[in-house]
Amino acid sequence: MSRVVEVSGDGFRPYDVVIGPRLLVGIGGIAEVRPGRAVAVVSDETVFGLYGGGVVDALASAGARVGSVVVPAGEASKSFGQLERVLDGLMAQGLDRSSLVIALGGGVIGDLAGLAAALFMRGIDFVQVPTTLLAQVDSSVGGKTAIDTPRGKNLVGAFHQPRRVLADTDVLKTLPARQLRSGWAEMLKHGLLADAAYFDQLAAIGDPVGVPDGALADAIERSVRIKAAVVGADEKEAGSRALLNLGHTFGHALEAELGFDERVLTHGEAVALGCVLAFGFSAREGLCPPSDASRMVDVVAASGLPTRLASVGSFRAEEVLARMAEDKKAQGGRLTLVLARGIGEAFVARDVDAGRVLAFLNEAGAA
Q: What is the rounded CA–CA span in Å between residue 162 and residue 209?
């Protein structure tokens, strides 16, 4: 049975996040399809090979005129070159302002296809069909779309809300354990920033690999509700939405230092390690009880996620700090970080002293 979470706010049309099994099978009836509508499925080579044929057939059976644009799998596809390729594909297939883009894939495809939909003819409808746990609980909800540049992650993008999100829980059964744990990192983040009881619930599960379907669906729904509430109150990150970046300023800097190579560090692993660093720095500064910082490290480790810099690579503190200074939230050269007063109590800290962050990074294992 499917669950539905509405995402709504003052600045955008409300839409539903549908969570449940067998949603891809019925996509033609729930993805804003109408007879004759031109629909482009944007996906990557791996996901399209698994699910693309069935999705295209289901959309065609609903009367849509369907085409596809398939890009290489991996973070490297969030680039100007692949964005141009997707936009050219939409034009070649004759899409117009009444057409629809289906983003079939993980967070990379959601970001890339969503940005293409935002730019094409100044914005057309798109539907998110996330096929990873991380995308289902986080990146598919909220309308953030972007590509990366050599200077940093997600620096070129737009806010463009989907018309619907279809989170088919059946597709998670094909996910490698590492990708499942990466999505779990974002779910732990939701508990850490706003809901201590939810964090306790995830902590009781421990490693998400092998978690029963019902418990996983419950947790997905809870994470989506947390994110929907934050997005509804602050669509364009003027205030409270920045809390969703807990762990991301540290994490994005580490990803950039490693060349966005997901073979070394996945995005979810970077978020987990970033949350460990954010809590560690908060404890060092006397903002957060050391016991909370220690407990969250134990829970992250029990989930099969990294907790030490040395476990993923060799970093120089000065270079990590320089990456952090290029973060979108930095203003006037001053750092803005999401820190914590405890589990479930994140806050935005502006004008953070870079020297203190540098000292902390050295203590944390960056050379």
A: 29
Residue among 2, 65, 1 at smallest CA distance from 28: 65
Provide, rounded to the nearest whole percent, the portion of the chain with pLDDT above 90: 86
Q: Residue 129 and residue 107: Cα distance in Å, rounded?
A: 10
What size, in residues, is the chain?
Answer: 367
Q: Does the annotation mark 160 as catalytic?
A: no
Q: Give residue for tokens 């970077």.
A: 270
Residue-wise pLDDT for 107-156, tens only, equals 999 999 999 999 999 999 999 999 999 999 999 999 999 999 888 788 89
The active-site residue out of 78, 160, 189, 252 is: 252
The letter for the amino acid at 49 is G
Task: Find out whether 66 and 59 touch, Cβ atoms under 8 Å.
Answer: yes
Hey, is 358 helix, strand or coil?
helix
Q: pLDDT under 70 in the chain at which residues?
A: 328-333, 367
Half-sphere exposure of residue 357: CA atoms within 13 angstroms, side-chain side = 28
Side chain identity, residue 350 = R
pTM: 0.92
Determine the distance from the C-alpha atom of residue 101 to the mean position of all C-alpha atoms in its chain, rounded to a whole number.
Answer: 19
The active-site residue, picked from 75, 154, 181, 186, is 186
